[in-house]
Amino acid sequence: FVISADLGQANDFSAICAIKDEALPIVDDGKVIVGPRKRSVVYADRFRGVSYVAVVDHLIRLCNAPPFGGKSQLVIDGTSIGRVVADMIWDQGHDLWAIQMTGGQDWSRKGRYVNVGKTALVENLAVMFAAGEISFAHDLPLRKEIEADLASFSTQTTAAGNQIVTQSRSASGHGDLGIALIIGAWASQALGNQVVGEFKLRGWF
């Protein structure tokens, strides 16, 4: 699982999304192989009016709770106040990635902080949906709100020929749920642990 969070300021919402990322073994022509990769948004929540200390506590407890415990990677929007919250989470002994949105398409990593172009973040999720690489769980709460947030983002070309992302205020607010999903999807694509190897499958005859 990738658990991603966008942190609100003042009266804005903080939002959390969780993406289940799995590739199960299947039998193909008598051989056991890794099946197709499936990613689905299985959890969403948002809240406001709580302290950042409480937000940090909630995120850590969520990462340790079933079904996420021992199988999740925490990612937060590390822009602005997010950097402070990232340090608070790190001080609690919990690992995470902090995504800091920048201009352009490139990305770079220094320690737990990752600088990524906002255009690249948004385009990555758009491509994933278009290719059928990510979907919503059928019973996902706040799905309509997430879709409204995502619809508030648009890509424009400047006079210099550069692609930029603009955002209009959606009916649900500042796009907090959309941003949480955008950074989580990018992290699952670019920062996920990937292991390629050959192992003996126990219990198979």
Q: Care to describe what's here?
A:
- About 30% of the residues lie in helices and about 30% in strands.
- The chain contains five helices and twelve strands.
- It has helices spanning about 50-65, 80-90, 120-130, 145-150, 175-190, and strands at about 1-5, 15-20, 25-30, 30-35, 40-45, 75, 95-100, 105-110, 115, 135, 155, 165.
- The model has no long low-confidence stretch (mean pLDDT about 85).
What brief labels describe this structure?
single chain; 205 residues; alpha/beta; eight-stranded mixed β-sheet; two-stranded antiparallel ribbon; 5 helices; 32% strand
Short description:
By secondary structure, this protein is an alpha/beta fold. The chain has helices at residues 52-64, 81-91, 118-130, 143-151, 176-190, and strands at residues 2-6, 14-22, 25-28, 31-34, 38-47, 73-77, 97-102, 107-110, 113-117, 134-136, 153-157, 163-167. The mean pLDDT is 86.
